[in-house]
Amino acid sequence: MKNNNKLLDDMMKDLHNQNEFYKPGNYWSFYEKNIVTQIKKNSLHQFRNWSGSAGVGNIQSFGGGAENLKGRFGANFHPFDDKFLFFDNNLFVKAYNFIINKISKFFSFFSFFSFRVAEGRRYFFEQVKKTQNLAYDKVYNIDKELLLSLSDSNIGNPSGFYRNEKFYTIEFINSLLKINFIKQSTNFDKVNSIVELGSGIGLLASAFLKLKKSLKYIIIDIPPALYISQNYLEALGYKILGYYDVINLKSLKDIDINKYDVICLPTWKINLLKDNKFDLFMNVASFQEMEPALVENYLKKISPQISKYIYLMNSKKGHAVGKKKKFGVLKNTSREHYLTFLKDSFRVKAERDAEHIYGKNNGSCEIIFEKK
Q1: What is the CATH number of the domain that holds 258?
Q2: Which pLDDT score, from 0 to 100, does residue 320 have?
Q3: Do 356 and 313 form a contact (C-beta atoms < 8 A)?
Q4: Greatest mean pLDDT range, 24-38, 61-75, 187-201
């Protein structure tokens, strides 16, 4: 992956000339400037290993960055960031902690004088390894065939692990849990095209594309997220109809869609979906970051083009409410909004508390709607 600041600048300039319905809502406008700055200051070659935290405006907010070193919400660093390695692994620090450990056997009070963070690094990464093994085993027991047929990519330099000579990350395994739920709740063999709004870095898209080689995948997003996902999926080797290809396009019927694996659309080109039918629409954890009017507009534009299923995974009650130009949404979008917006054309086929490797998440739910 290579930085292309001109593409990013063009995307951002076009974004700010659009109707309010297709710009970032209050939640994302709070993040936007800092994320763009982060992307320009760092190499995309390392984008899945950038340090930082959600809540301060960086790529962790939509699925990138260092998976195991995400700071708590709003923090500007993680205590075990790589930048602290020079101290934690220093020979003096190791020798000092060794001496303190010996002395504390006889005088326990001396343990308070140790460099505990340096010692804690080892314990932390031992727990990370255990979590990775538990995540793998969980999906293995749920859907062995799915797990063994797929693996993550090293592109972007993510921190992951190998099992049976295949590479995985926790985020990728969480994507497999979503796919398993969709497989179990739909006639998945008949799903040959997917539209995803808010695709993050494109990780879930990459899993679907690896699973079904003939799949046609449409991504709809705002930059800079669209900039990352387009670059990432292109680096994976998929044939992309990208931003410069679609900005002047009038209809998808004007191209041979079979030449492409992925079509990347900015939100304001959503009308290109018109006169086409797609089997599945997905939104994961981004409707919850919008106000109800924005969500309703997107569903009104997209749902008529969906012939089979809709998959939503979002907070049941919506995101935290903030003030204008401050963190949070101006009004919550809840589970009841989705039911109301889709009631005329879709029925609920399956629903559960959102599943991830740590178990059930009672704050979010996964809903699969079926076309009436």
Answers
A1: 3.40.50.150
A2: 82
A3: no
A4: 187-201
Determine if the peptide bond prior to 224 is cis (ω within 30°).
yes
Q: How far apart are CA 323 and CA 65, in angstroms?
A: 27
Q: Does residue 65 lie in a domain region?
A: no
Dihedral over alpha carbons 131, 366, 150, 226 (to 10 degrees)? -100
What 3-state class would DSSP assign to 94? helix
Q: In total, how many domains does the chain have? A: 1
The answer to whether position 257 is within a domain reads: yes
What pTM value is reported for the model? Answer: 0.94
Residue 105 CB neighbours (<10 A): 9
Per residue in 170-204, pLDDT tens? 999 999 999 999 999 999 999 999 999 999 999 99
Q: Which has the closest alpha carbon to 219: 269, 157, 259?
A: 269
Mean pLDDT over 325-347 rounds to 93
Query: What pLDDT digit, counting tens, does each position of 103-122 carry?
Result: 999 999 999 999 999 999 99
Q: Is residue 265 part of a domain?
A: yes
CA 336: distance to chain centroid? 24
